[in-house]
Amino acid sequence: MTQGIIAAGHEETAAAAAMILKEGGNAFDAAIAAFFASFITEPCMSSPGGGAFANIFTAGGESIFLDCFCQTPQVKRPVAEVEFEPMVVNFGETTETFHLGMGSIAVPGIIAGIFHIHEQYATIPLSVLAEPALDIARKGVKINNFQFFDICVLEAIMTKEEESKNLFYPEGKPLAVGETLRMAKMADYLEYLIKEGVREFYEGEFAGKLVKDCQDRGGFITMDDMRNYRVNLSKPLSFPYRNKTILTNPLPGTGGTLLGLFMRKLEKKYNKNYEPFSSGHVQTLQQITDEVFRIERTVTNLNKKWGSTSHFNIVDKAGNAINITMSNGEGSGYMVPGTNIMLNNMLGEASLLPGGFHSWACDTRLSSMMSPTIVLDSDGNFETAIGSGGGSRIPSVISQVLHYLIDFEMSVHDAVHSARLHNEHSELNLEPDFVGKHFNSAELNVINWKEPAMFFGGVHTIHKKGKTLHACGDNRREGFALKV
Questions:
Q1: In 3-state terms, what secondary structure has residue 150?
Q2: Are 16 and 136 within 8 A, CB to CB?
Q3: Residues near 412 by Cβ (< 8 Å), separated by ≥ 6?
Q4: What does residue 397 show for φ and ψ, rounded to 5 degrees?
Q5: DSSP class of residue 247?
Q6: Which of 7, 93, 351, 423 has the most neighbouring CB atoms within 10 Å?
Q7: What are the φ/ψ torsions at residue 95 (nearest 5 degrees)?
């Protein structure tokens, strides 16, 4: 009998969830196991020092959106006292500038989110749910191509301090594909955290070390910031598309709003007579993407962001569904000593700070493009769980996969791996099947990608067709799907 289905950003993340489903856990138990595992299997994407969003739909029809993203500190200090360093990253086709250092760290929320999900929805002790991750952390995980790419391009962050450098650049060069990453100190800390409870992270030894280093070395975070962090619960943003209902990230997250805008425009403008990937189809997507991001750009002046973000979806045999998108930014370069836990650099993310660096309002939940999304069928039953990494491109890439699933009735594998485009800042990025079929103009810079690329996200997806659940991990980011 099938226990459930998983689509995740790494094979070992999915395997950790599968182990829990096999032991009789529900989707929420499995999600906690996947969360813990992702800290080791996807270390450039996920960390206890980062933030996340979870979209929950229970077998009983309850719909809850959980915001455990990062919070700004309550008090600022003079910029001259702050450690805040620029870092230029070369991604081949483009470069981006990130900022790191103690002054880039916002209050992390993932650990509070894990404990909340466990308290409200889980059925298995937290110590059991962490076991797969602890095993991975101590025995190690093989570096794949995607993780190797991230470790290389983020070299300045991964080598900024000795603890991180020893993990990822143990002999002065990055761990190669096929080499083993071990994070034994993280395993030790997670065991200690589970025994002590969530307040250890926010008020205990971990918080004490983080706060002291922030105060001594040019950061903002105080013990009050950590102590006062809370998970925010709300109803998801809900809107119709055809005869479906789409549930996604509500405000203050901007990703869900853009996703809704994209889908509403698509419903009005898409001509059902277009063949997939025909000129008319490509031009419609190009126009909608331009309109959506032109409108948003005038409001928030969003900057492009590569997106150090991952996502997973889990559905169990009872019909409980959860999908989670998490991020550590690119990482601040700082690990709390002796824990292998790198803190986020959300205060150094231009895309989260439309007014410029250090413009953030105190004691405020940061906004994000992350948009874990669930689709219900015409009867209000679960149909799709979908999400992606990819920075500002997240709403458009999710929308395009939903378009393929709903309007073209593609299989989940074909929908996830069909061509995508993104049109923002007068720059049109096209995957191969779209090349040459777009509108041209003198103002438009067109980038023709030679093959599908991680630039266009990693849209890991679960989709119900008839009575059968199907899952697909996006090859662009070496995603992995598993039925248990």
A1: helix
A2: yes
A3: 405, 461, 462, 463, 465, 470, 471, 472
A4: -75, -35
A5: E
A6: 7
A7: -120, 155
Q: Residue 92 — very low, low, confident or very high, per pLDDT cuts 50/70/90?
A: low
Q: Active-site positions?
A: 309
pLDDT in tens, 166-202: 999 999 999 999 999 999 999 999 999 999 999 999 9
In a domain, 472, yes or no: no
390 with 328, same domain? no
* Alpha carbon distance, N-terminus to C-terminus of the chain: 9
Asked whether 397 and 389 are in contact (CB, 8 A), the reply is no
Co-location of 270 and 194 in the same domain:
no
Which of 81, 97, 80, 100 is closest to 89 using CA atoms?
Answer: 97
CATH number for 387: 3.60.20
Q: 232-256 in b/e burial notation, b at 16+ Cβ within 10 A?
A: beeebbbbebeebbbbbbbeebbbb
Boundaries of domain holding 428: 237-306+374-465
Provide DSSP, 48-79: TBSEEEEEEE-TTS-EEEEEE--B--S----G
Most confident of 50-64, 86-100, 447-461: 50-64
Predicted TM-score of the model (pTM): 0.94
Q: For residue 1, name the pLDDT band (cuts at 50, 70, 90).
A: low
